[in-house]
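The instructor's notes for this session suggest beginning with a concrete chain rather than abstract definitions. Hand out the sequence below and ask the class to guess, before any prediction is shown, which regions might be ordered.
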Amino acid sequence: MTKPLPSAFDKEDADDIVDTTNPTPRPKDAATLILVRRDQAMPRVLMGKRSGGHDFMPDKYVFPGGRVDPHDGRAQAVSELRADVEAKLTIQARRKPRSFALTAIRETFEETGLIVGRDSPLEGKPPIGWDKYYGLGIAPCLKGMTFIGRAITPPYRPKRFDARFFMAEAEDALIDERPPVDGAELHDLQWVTLKDAMALDLPNVTRFMLGEIGARLEGADDGPPFLRWTRTGHTNDRL
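After discussion, reveal the predicted structure:
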């Protein structure tokens, strides 16, 4: 079923709007990981603040994530995605499903220092961009990752991404209990309850996905939402 979803695509800042006479940039594949901790009374998620120097969503609080690198899909893993997750990721996709999950893991490591993986020596040379991760004697673990949503940046933005959002239980997914470390991409990294997260300065799509997380934590699962702009306007399909 298709229906309008203006709340996920509202124009947050007029400066982000581009001249509509210019060609619309093609969305670049991206992936995001939402880590959920349940070691306190209320579930918490990991969020960080983007640098003010970014030309895409500066100073906004987001989940770790970034653009898919062509080499990500070649990374070895100790486990693969569940069949149901893989099936959803193949819908209208040009890449192998594991590429998105591996990007989310790599970006989380680069932006927070947290490791989603297991102890496992690598056989052969690591793909480009994975040297530091594999240098720790670990390999990604994909089986605990759940695909919870997809969103394509509206065409009036100067930069556009086709982002897949994953969720994972922190206590199971992370290799240890090390704290997140601020870096050049994200700072003020913190574990926050969903209620406290909603009070932060968030992109609308992040706010929408927090609502999706809340619904899933309460047991709902209507399939991953697919937020995008079509000729008829803003739509939200369920994959």
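Then share the key points. DSSP finds six helices and eleven strands in the chain. Residues 1-21 have pLDDT under 50 and may be disordered.
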